[in-house]
Amino acid sequence: MVTPRFDIIGQALGDASRTRMLCELMEGRAFTNKELASAASVTPQTATTHLRLLQDAGLVVSEKRGRCVFHRLAGPEVAQALEQLAALAPRDSLHRAQKRKAGGLAQLRSCYDHLAGPLAVAMTDALQNRGVLQRDGGRFVAQESEVWTALGVTLAPDKGARPFARPCMDWTERRDHIAGPMGQQILNHAKEAGWLRRAGQNRELLLTAPGARAFHQMLGLPVADLPHFTQEA
Amino acid sequence: MVTPRFDIIGQALGDASRTRMLCELMEGRAFTNKELASAASVTPQTATTHLRLLQDAGLVVSEKRGRCVFHRLAGPEVAQALEQLAALAPRDSLHRAQKRKAGGLAQLRSCYDHLAGPLAVAMTDALQNRGVLQRDGGRFVAQESEVWTALGVTLAPDKGARPFARPCMDWTERRDHIAGPMGQQILNHAKEAGWLRRAGQNRELLLTAPGARAFHQMLGLPVADLPHFTQEA
DNA sequence: AATTCGTTTCGTTGTGCACCGAAGTGTCTC
DNA sequence: GAGACACTTCGGTGCACAACGAAACGAATT
To answer: What ipTM score was computed for the predicted complex, to two decimals?
Structure first.
């Protein structure tokens, strides 16, 4: 048969669990297997098979980083095609991204042991612009002494084997931020200095007034749009 | 769950048989159940369930005409979305329409007992423009005496109960042409007058030189692009 | 009324596959 | 090294559904 084979893509779309995963991925960020599994309400091993199928269909690309695997849409065309397809069904739209940005869920949060979100990405950018941090393929190289002064932080010296600064895929910005010992110590210092406070049980964080001043004065980071800590809580 | 529900559409696309049907329908014409069943290589009863599914997904609309049911894509947006989706898969394109138009399969053919194809649609247009034929909801009303002269045909008088001129969904043009006794007698006269000849075993027809003259002079129909009869056969 | 044809409904079979539990691999931390 | 942790592979279960035969329905023709 000479029939065009968009049934492969159709097959990939033809399952509710995969649909839920794709809706998460429509946000543009990269997600781990576990997160997508949770989004689809299935176990990780089921998510693995789903994601392989989406990969085979060319809708999703996956990238291994350490022990995590990050999945994201194969490109903007995919998102566009899916959006157009979803527009055929006059249901509620699927712009989770906007909802999430509007709702204060995760503009500022911790990622494992380090800082994540737009602020973390902006910090990474700022440090790179000042030449304190350089990207070298899949890793970061930091001028340690200068980082101290740039951040006003006294970081413990590197213990050795573990890379001092690693890039970590940021959920919201779909770009890398600083992980590893350096990221961990930055977050610790920010907490101890009272720059950040936990918002609830989850990983969400709030910026305090001194924290906003510190990040803005030291690195020129934009802090106006971030969620600030108020006395209400 | 608040997840968007494009899994319904995805489900509809997620089957090879339905994909084959949709590829046929991408041509823009309306197809009967049986034709789509044949295109998908399944039995008509299987095609029925597939088509209901496509209907529920909002991809296809169906219209009953006599004992036939005509199915076509719900609208141009559907075709566009499918095309964009198919473009994600870098396989061979699905433009059957163009192939079929380029290949001389069915520019001019008989439909049951009457004439079909672009020429038939153009004829219907021309007769309506001259006020000889009027559309009245789901049927045609013809000024019989004037039709005679306009076509240079002597049509037998209407037998009674059966509507003299009925609209019939044209495959190629996705628009109606003239069926019923009127359409039948027009085709008969065209054959007897040597205006048209059969091309092979199928319903394909060829236009002869006198036929081209007749259709062009009497109704101003465009005949240049239609398949002409030559001595080769 | 009988026949033919296109379509649909029903009942059944068979298969594909989503799902999970258990176990295995690779990576990171202590 | 041991112990977490993220992910994958394997095996098995259960369900959804594509497919067809048989039969019913409706429209058109005789």
So the answer is: 0.58
